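Sequence only, no structure available. Ideas?
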Amino acid sequence: MHRPGPQLSELAVQLSPPPPADQLGPVGDWTSLLPGVRGASKALGVIARGAAKQAEQKRRSLKSP
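Reply:
I predicted one. Tokens follow.
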């Protein structure tokens, strides 16, 4: 297994709350990946908001060091 180098300890990750889920939408034009699919933009918005909600729940469950 790979052992990370000493620079790994120099990395810092700051978790901050995302914008409210109702303000999130798909990033970019993902609807072009689903040509002819009615409601693709709306469905992608639902998926993005759900993922944001799950990420926020996970963030809240983590304890600060």
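Helices lie at 40-61.
Hope that gets you unstuck.
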